[in-house]
Amino acid sequence: MLKHKIYLVVLALAIFASCKKEDDLGDVSQIPGLGGDTWATGPIDKWILDSLTTPFNVSAKYKWDQGELEFDKTLTPPKEEKIIPVMSSIKSVWIDNYVKEAGKPFMMKYIPKWFVLVGSASWNIDGTITLGTAEGGRRVLLYVLNDFRIKGMPGYVPSDSFNIKQMFHTIEHEFGHILHQTVLYPQEWKSISTGDYTSDWNNTTDSSAHEKGFITMYAQSNPDDDFVEMISMMLTEGKAGYEGILSTITSTTGKSKLRQKETMVVSYFKDVWGIDFASLQQRTRNSIELLIK
């Protein structure tokens, strides 16, 4: 089973707790999944059923279950008031726009069937945080949901648009992995930036990555993530935002490489999936702007 992660670089100190053999574990019957964790169906469950499960056979788990997560991480459950705004936004920005461009049968076939929702970020030892993971194309973990605020929610300020774009960047990135795992991008993709991929990507910057022909510093990590970072950034930034990034690049070689990758992404979507990427890009960006402006 393939597992992909998307990271965001931050500076951090990690604090780890240990458990001794003699520690009192309490009543294990209250551990989720071992009994004692039943609850009455509420408005959130009904919304998930009506909006995701019935039309797309998709479920979202928001009740806390450490068994779904990495045991060596300190994580926070999602706030219940965030669940419907988050999943509703995901539906309008991601699911609905792919349905409009590729059709409902396409989305029902390739959409991950199981979302696990987490309130906080997942911190890593190397100073990065995990924003999301996709496993086998069927299970997606989404983090940092407690920071999600859209226009109209209490406390929203324009700077919150960063967190909104960050979440959709994660979604589009992970779905890009599902697509290329199903039908691989052209082998020529790997030759565009041969020799420039690095495991030390997190010690660089987006600006330096742009000069080398990568759309983000994380795109430098390997060809697969280079490919899906292009998809994600082109969709979430929209045509104008993407062109704005390219306008800052001083390296002719770097800009040329990004143009090659852009062309290959557009052709991949058309030739493999029959999707007009420019139309999907415009729809996606319009939907994001409805949430933040």
List keywords for this structure.
alpha/beta; Collagenase (Catalytic Domain); six-stranded mixed β-sheet; 9 helices; globular; LP_HExxH_w_TonB; Substrate import-associated zinc metallohydrolase lipoprotein
Query: What is the chains' assembly state?
Result: single chain
| Terminal Cα span | 39 Å
CATH class: Alpha Beta
Order of helices and strands: EHEHHEEEEHHHHHH
Poorly predicted spans:
9-32
Shape: globular
Instruction: Report Rg.
Output: 20 Å
Question: Would you tell me the overall average pLDDT?
Answer: 85
CATH topology: Collagenase (Catalytic Domain)
Q: What is the total tally of β strands? A: 6
Number of domains: 1
CATH architecture descriptor name? 3-Layer(aba) Sandwich
Class inferred from helices and paired strands: alpha/beta
How would you characterize the largest beta sheet? 6 strands, mixed
Query: Helix count?
Result: 9
Helicity, in percent? Answer: 40-55%
Strand content: 5-15%
What's the quick description here?
The chain is α/β, with parallel strands linked by helices and 293 residues long. It has 9 helices and 6 strands.
Give the topology, please.
Elements: E1 3-9, H1 43-56, E2 59-61, H2 80-102, H3 104-110, E3 114-117, E4 122-123, E5 128-135, E6 139-142, H4 161-182, H5 189-192, H6 206-212, H7 223-247, H8 252-273, H9 277-292
Parallel strand pairs: 2-3, 3-6
Antiparallel strand pairs: 1-5, 4-5, 5-6
Helix pairs in contact: 1-2, 2-3, 2-9, 4-7, 7-8, 7-9
Protein name: Substrate import-associated zinc metallohydrolase lipoprotein
Organism: Niastella yeongjuensis
Pfam family, one: Peptidase_Mx1
